[in-house]
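Sample intake sheet
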Amino acid sequence: MLCAQFSTAQNLFCVDSIAFEGNHRSKASALLRDLNIAEGTCFAQDSLKAVLEVAEQRLFNTQLFNQVIADTQTVNGRNTVRFNLKERFPIFPKPNLEFADRNFNVWWTEQNRKLNRLNVGLTLLHNNVNGMREVLGVGAQVGYTQKFLLSYEKPFVDRKKQHGFGASVQYLQNLELSYQTEANKLRFIRFERQPALQLFEGALWYTYRPQFSTKHIFKTTLQQYRIHDSIANRYNPDYLGEGRKQATVLGLEYRMEWNKVDNWNYPLSGQRFIGIATYQQMLNGKGMPSMHLQYDWYKNPYPHWYVSAIGRARWALNQTVPYIFQRNLGYDYDVLRGYEYFVMDGSLFGLARLNVKRTLIHKNIKLPIRYFQVIPIRIYAKAFGDAGYTYQKEPGNNSLNNKFLYSYGIGLDIVTLYDIKIRLEYTINRQGLRDLYIHKSGE
């Protein structure tokens, strides 16, 4: 960082101009929106380094750059803050090789690594249309689930860059689906000639971002489900409720995000809160209001050491809803570590996670390739513990429901280019089951 000249009277550094280098596609006006500095602002000498570090992290969190470096320069008494940027490739062809099952371990162990339970597809994501951070996505997938997706999001449409909108449509179908939960395991049925499930979904949303760390999303959805006759008539008449073979569901959702973490992809310090209120109305059926809350806390108490606590909860006001809407623990990110082979359906759950981590490797590999000039490699060792509870009004033979569960273990987190994350975790749960689990997502 170049030596800057400060006001001797007030010991201040006042920003006269801001310059960007390496933003071949990204427009400066779109980047200035997320900065914590502006032309004319002044900072104390002893706080300037911290201010620039925050600015670097904010630009990195736009997910437009692989590397951001800030410095200052003073020429003829004018102070300039400069940002050297290494842009990501804006049009990212994302090959999809996904497991039809909920996680790698279920596919590897319980489904015996069957290739017909893999999804292969390609999603083309343009993360920076016109240099103004619009996101355009087109995707197609074959395999266990056939899917087509089209989406577009414009983060801001006004001068203050606070209001935005988005839209998406998708269609998917499966020859096989999980029609029931028994003993906390999903039961599957497969049909060879007709799809077991068909789903069309359309969505529109409006975003309001009054501050850098606060975002509000108002979303409306239309979903149309159709299932195989045998599922409604024989295997589980409650799948869509009351023996329905098809259903139309209207949804309204409000989502509030308050995000004060350092790195949105893999946080190590700061706090984050997410609240989601949802109301789904099945035509000629029941209304299904629900609430989902999440709070994350991250701390860097000593160099190379990190601690975190994560809490999540979901509450569905209507306790008697069709089977497809009863998902609780065991799906997506709401997984109690050590219970990857199980699901706990119901109307309420709580989940808590504690982690202690230490940096093992923190380095950047430089290559003479545009858009891949810097490949970050981060590896963290960790110890962790989880606890959770799910309530189901009529649990049947699902013995893990309505019971306090916990687990603990050790693991490695690997973080690298383009937000790729891999978690290796050896976990022991309350029932004494122990195994090595592999995940390709964050916590």
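Comment: The chain has two domains: 12-87, 91-439. The radius of gyration is 24 Å.
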